Amino acid sequence: MPKYYEDKEPDNRACAGIREDFKACLLQHDCVVKEGKLPSECLKEGHCKALQTSFFECKRSMLDTRSRFRGRKGY
Q1: Quick one: 39 exposed, middle or buried, by C-beta within 10 A (0-12, 13-18, 19+)?
Q2: DSSP designation for 29
Q3: Which of 16, 30, 47, 58 could, after both became Cys, cross-link 11 (CB 3.0–4.6 A)?
Q4: Closest residue by Cα to residue 50 from 1, 10, 11
Q5: Can you give the pLDDT at residue 68?
Q6: Is the dihedral of CA 18, 5, 28, 39 positive or negative?
Protein backbone atom coordinates (compact mmCIF):
# COMPACT_ATOMS: atom_id res chain seq x y z
CA MET A 1 0.00 0.00 0.00
CA PRO A 2 1.55 3.35 -0.94
CA LYS A 3 2.31 5.77 1.85
CA TYR A 4 1.13 9.32 1.37
CA TYR A 5 2.22 12.17 3.59
CA GLU A 6 0.34 15.42 4.11
CA ASP A 7 3.43 17.63 4.39
CA LYS A 8 5.00 16.49 1.10
CA GLU A 9 4.41 17.96 -2.31
CA PRO A 10 2.36 15.71 -4.59
CA ASP A 11 4.49 13.65 -6.96
CA ASN A 12 2.71 13.29 -10.28
CA ARG A 13 5.36 11.09 -11.86
CA ALA A 14 4.48 7.59 -12.90
CA CYS A 15 4.82 4.93 -10.20
CA ALA A 16 5.32 7.58 -7.50
CA GLY A 17 3.69 5.55 -4.73
CA ILE A 18 5.80 2.47 -5.33
CA ARG A 19 8.91 4.62 -5.74
CA GLU A 20 8.32 6.20 -2.31
CA ASP A 21 7.70 2.84 -0.61
CA PHE A 22 10.74 1.28 -2.29
CA LYS A 23 12.95 4.16 -1.19
CA ALA A 24 11.62 4.02 2.38
CA CYS A 25 12.11 0.25 2.54
CA LEU A 26 15.73 0.52 1.49
CA LEU A 27 16.62 3.46 3.72
CA GLN A 28 14.96 1.97 6.81
CA HIS A 29 16.29 -1.58 6.34
CA ASP A 30 18.74 -2.96 8.90
CA CYS A 31 21.25 -3.48 6.12
CA VAL A 32 21.56 0.29 5.66
CA VAL A 33 20.81 1.51 9.18
CA LYS A 34 22.77 -0.92 11.35
CA GLU A 35 25.42 -2.27 8.99
CA GLY A 36 26.07 1.08 7.28
CA LYS A 37 26.00 -0.31 3.75
CA LEU A 38 24.86 1.59 0.68
CA PRO A 39 21.31 0.94 -0.53
CA SER A 40 22.70 -0.37 -3.83
CA GLU A 41 24.69 -3.00 -1.91
CA CYS A 42 21.59 -4.06 0.00
CA LEU A 43 19.68 -4.44 -3.28
CA LYS A 44 22.33 -6.84 -4.56
CA GLU A 45 21.84 -8.90 -1.39
CA GLY A 46 18.12 -9.20 -2.17
CA HIS A 47 16.50 -6.87 0.37
CA CYS A 48 13.11 -5.23 -0.54
CA LYS A 49 12.85 -7.60 -3.50
CA ALA A 50 9.04 -7.47 -3.76
CA LEU A 51 8.97 -3.67 -4.00
CA GLN A 52 11.85 -3.70 -6.46
CA THR A 53 9.93 -6.11 -8.70
CA SER A 54 6.73 -4.05 -8.42
CA PHE A 55 8.60 -0.86 -9.30
CA PHE A 56 10.23 -2.56 -12.28
CA GLU A 57 6.87 -3.87 -13.53
CA CYS A 58 5.32 -0.42 -13.20
CA LYS A 59 8.11 1.24 -15.16
CA ARG A 60 8.04 -1.53 -17.77
CA SER A 61 4.31 -1.07 -18.26
CA MET A 62 5.03 2.49 -19.41
CA LEU A 63 7.12 1.17 -22.30
CA ASP A 64 4.70 -1.58 -23.27
CA THR A 65 3.11 -0.68 -26.59
CA ARG A 66 -0.08 -2.55 -25.66
CA SER A 67 -0.60 -0.19 -22.73
CA ARG A 68 -1.01 2.71 -25.15
CA PHE A 69 -4.44 1.35 -25.93
CA ARG A 70 -5.34 0.02 -22.49
CA GLY A 71 -3.74 2.76 -20.41
CA ARG A 72 -1.01 2.61 -17.80
CA LYS A 73 -1.55 0.37 -14.81
CA GLY A 74 -2.79 2.29 -11.79
CA TYR A 75 0.09 1.81 -9.39
Answers
A1: middle
A2: S
A3: 16
A4: 1
A5: 61
A6: positive
N-term to C-term CA, the chain: 10
pLDDT the model gives residue 30: 92
The CA-atom distances, in angstroms, between 46 and each of 8, 26, 40, 49 are 29, 11, 10, 6
Closest CA to 67 of 11, 4, 15: 15
**pTM recorded for the entire structure:** 0.71
Say how far apart CA 38 and CA 33 lie, in whole Å: 9
Note the pLDDT of residue 34: 92
Q: Tell me how long the chain is.
A: 75
